[in-house]
Amino acid sequence: MLGDDPTYTGMDISAKSIVCTTLDENGNIVRKDSIEKAFRILQTDLDIFPMRVRKE
């Protein structure tokens, strides 16, 4: 379904979750995924980089 056809993906990132939605060229949703506790997961992934992420 996602082969060579143009698709567009957007991400809504918040402290509680990350939602990724992929649309086809006509604007139809072809995939939607959600990750709960997103900030903790994202922070863990970012910890491998030397920069510091500011926590408020």
Q: Any chance you could write out the topology, listing elements then pairs?
A:
Layout: E1 7-13, E2 17-24, E3 29-36, H1 38-46
Antiparallel strand pairs: 1-2, 2-3
Q: Which key phrases capture this entry?
A:
56 residues; alpha+beta; three-stranded antiparallel sheet; 3 strands; elongated
3D structure, described in words:
With 56 residues, the chain is of the alpha+beta class. The chain has one domain (7-46). It is 16% helix and 41% strand. The protein has one helix spanning 38-46, and strands spanning 7-13, 17-24, 29-36. A three-stranded antiparallel beta sheet has the order 1-2-3, with no helix packed on it. A hairpin with a 3-residue loop joins β1 (7-13) and β2 (17-24).
Query: Average pLDDT, to the nearest integer?
Result: 78
CA distance, first residue to last residue: 41 Å
Strand order of the largest sheet: 1-2-3
Low-pLDDT runs of 5+ residues are: none
Total helix count? 1
Order of helices and strands: EEEH
Q: Determine the fraction of residues in helical runs and give it as a percent range.
A: 10-25%
Estimate the global geometry from the Cα principal axes: elongated
Oligomer: single chain
Task: Give the number of domains.
Answer: 1
Quote the beta fraction.
35-45%
Helix/strand/pairing category: alpha+beta
Counting DSSP E segments of at least 2 residues, the number of strands comes to 3
Instruction: Give the C-alpha Rg.
Output: 15 Å
